[in-house]
Write the C-alpha cells for this entry.
Amino acid sequence: MVKKNQDEFIGKLQPKKKHNLEIYEFIVNKLSESGRELFKSCSTFNQFITTRDKEKKKLINSNPCKNRFCPICAWRKARKDAMKISIMMEAIRLEEKKDFLFLTLTTPNIKADAVKSEIDRFNKAFNKLFKRRRIERSIKGYIRKLEMTYNKQRDDYNPHFHVLLCVNKSYFTDKRYYIPQKEWLGMWRDVTGLQEITQVHIQKVETTRGDAVAEIAKYSAKDYEMAVSQEVFDVFYSALKGRQLIVYGGLLKEYALKYESGELDKYKGKDQNQYFYKLIAMWNKDLMKFEQEYQELTDFEREKYNGHLIDEMEVE
C-alpha cells in the first residue's frame, strides 16, 4: 500500500463506475425511488485537480451515493479508513509506546441459509473472547473488521474478522502477557463452540502503512463476488445491511475520536504536489466511459487547493 491521495486515476474510477451499474441491477428493487437515483447516478460528475504534467490527480468534488454496496463509495471509504488507521497507529506507537498484532478469525465455509446466523455467532463469540481475563490483560485496544467472501466453485460463503490488536512492547518478552498462536486457536474454538476450526492467523505488524492496514480498511465484500448473480447478491445484502462493519475498542477507540477531532493532524503528511489544472470528468452513459475536460486553475484556486494535508491512502 502506497500513500497516494493524489493518484485517484480516472483509469481506476471508470471500471468501478461500471461495477456500480452492475450492482445497481441487483439492488434496484431494494431501494426507494430516491435511493435508486442516487445509486445509479453515483460519481457521474467528478472534479479533480491535477499537476501541470497531469500525472497526479486529487478529487475535490463529486456526487457520491454513500451506499455501502456501491463499489465506488466502498473504495473511497477504504482509502480514508486506511489513512485514519495508519495515522492512529503511528500516534499510538509514538505517544503510548505500543506495538501491534494482526489477527484473522474465521470458521469453516457455510451455505447461504446459514450466513446471517453465523455472523451473529461471530459477534457473540468475539465479545466473549475479548471479555476473557487473559485477553483483557494483554490487549490494550483493537479494530475489528467484518469481511465476507464467496466461493463460486463450492457455492459457499466465508464471513471472517480481520482484527488489529494493540499491545505493550513487553508483550513478546513477558510470559504474563504473551499469547501463543495455539492458545488463540483454543480460545476461538471455545467461544465459537466449533472444535473443527483448524487455524487462527496472528502475526506482529511491522509497519503502520503495510498489508495489515489494507486488510482492515478494505471493503467488506468484493463487488465482483456480489455481482455473480441475484441470489448471491441477496445473501451479501441480507448479511451485511445494517451491520456495524468496523468496530473500535480500547485505546484504538480513544485515538479514533482524536483523529476525528483533528488532534492527530500533526501526524499527517503534507501534499507536496503543486496543482495547476482542474479536471472535470463526466460519465457518458451511452459510451460507458468518462469524458474529460481540463481547465487551468485561477490564482485563487491554486491558493485554495495547494498545500493541504494528505487524508487518503491507496487501497487495492
